[in-house]
Known about the structure:
Blueprint: E1 4-12, H1 37-51, E2 59-62, H2 64-73, H3 75-92, E3 97-98, H4 112-130, H5 146-154, E4 159-162, E5 178-181, E6 187-192, H6 195-203, H7 211-225, E7 232-239, H8 250-261, E8 268-269, H9 272-278, E9 283-284, H10 315-337, H11 344-350, H12 352-355, H13 361-368, H14 375-393, H15 398-401, H16 408-428, H17 437-440, H18 452-467
Parallel strand pairs: 1-2, 1-7, 1-8, 2-3, 4-6, 5-9
Antiparallel strand pairs: 5-6
Helix pairs in contact: 1-3, 2-3, 4-5, 4-11, 7-8, 10-14, 10-16, 13-14, 14-16, 16-18
The structure holds zinc ion.
Amino acid sequence: MPERAFCVHGHFYQPPRVDPFTGEIPQEYGAEPYSNWTEKIYHTCYRPNTLIGNFEKISFNLGSTLTHWMEQHHPDTLKEIVRQENAVFARLGVSNGMAQPYFHTIMPLADKRDKLTLVRWGLRDYQRLFGHLPQGMWLPETAVDLETLDVLAGEGLQFTILAPWQAKRSDLDVTQPYKVNLPSGRSIAVFFYNSFLSGEISFNPCATENADRFVQDWLLPQMGAIQRDGAQFFLAASDGELYGHHQPFRDMFLSHLLDGAVEERGILRSYPAAWLRNHPLEQSTEIVENTSWSCHHGIERWRDVCGDAPDATWKKPLREFLTQLSQAVDAIYEEKTSGLVGDLWALRDDYAQVIMGQADPNEFVQAHAKKKLNSAEVTLLKNLLAAQHERLRMFSSDAWFFYDLDRIEPLNALKYAAHAAHLTQLACGRDVSQDLLPIISRAQSQQSGLHGDMAYLSYLSRFNLNYA
Ligand SMILES: [Zn+2]
């Protein structure tokens, strides 16, 4: 019988809920008895999955906004996740973890320079946590274009995971990874997940009540339906929060599924990186650019109205406002720093050291300057780099995912935007967002009537009052 393997990938992630005014996550309604949702999901999902050893059994990625929170609030749990990944790495020589761009950005909507920074920051964060680089990178919402894949390949990454409808081939066989050739001459491997198994795990609670029954009634019939002569890799992908949070006790389902139920039926447990090492790519495909796993209209969900949120007319002006604001912030960054440092954008990439607490900000800017800086120049560089961090953070996809503007995710995007504008104003003496207010005034909440420009201006004045 040809070799057959099964793998579950979990995408574990929390939006940036931290309030930039306090540096903490505010008390959140509905998360009782915990003070916020991240803490609640920690107790229902991250902690139990760690205690039961699931991070050794699955393929996973953990967003940096989540790991940084865990580092602060539950460092022992994070250490245990690292230990489990390290055990796989020691055994197989490849990782069962995947990195993620540092913020949960819809990559096709970012320009190449931002793509590079987000991928480099994400890789640095993975290496810092796990002690080595990963072979794969998970893309937020699996949103993809060729430039993103090329950036991944250029940074040494070997593979990503996409939904099957993101391949151009109509005869796609999802039990094998495909080679995607890129315009630069590079290539990258893509695993396409099994959409039936992934959908059943994610949306049909009956499927995941019992691991043995899942193998008998879901996995084996799928394996029977897709047969070919060569080795086959069956991959199911879902949000990690499903296991224990969205659906109770699924942490235990997952554990038994991958530590008993599957092997008892002669199916191997494997991971994408391990599979790729032992099975050379036989087929290639092109991808459909500007597609994702969670919007059936490409990537419209994150920039305009679409069938997933047909009344969300606030999304387009929010995207436009943030895009133009980031261009204005970048123009000041270039103008004010070009005499002080060499490669401004390499400096931003290296700034990851400061964000991750590996370098002192004052020493960092001095070490990267073309000359000895005075204290005003040090402050200028620190403010402009902090503005770059905020303007990258404000594009986290969560801001556009839901139906209304008056929610923590879009309002946090406006807070980070106001912070970026404030820091830029400290460097250049003027408010670069002023001319853009008519754009954000077009974004309105249907639920509360909140106007985007009013919310933005209230945040901006708070920053100016607090720190002027
Ligand atoms: Zn959609």
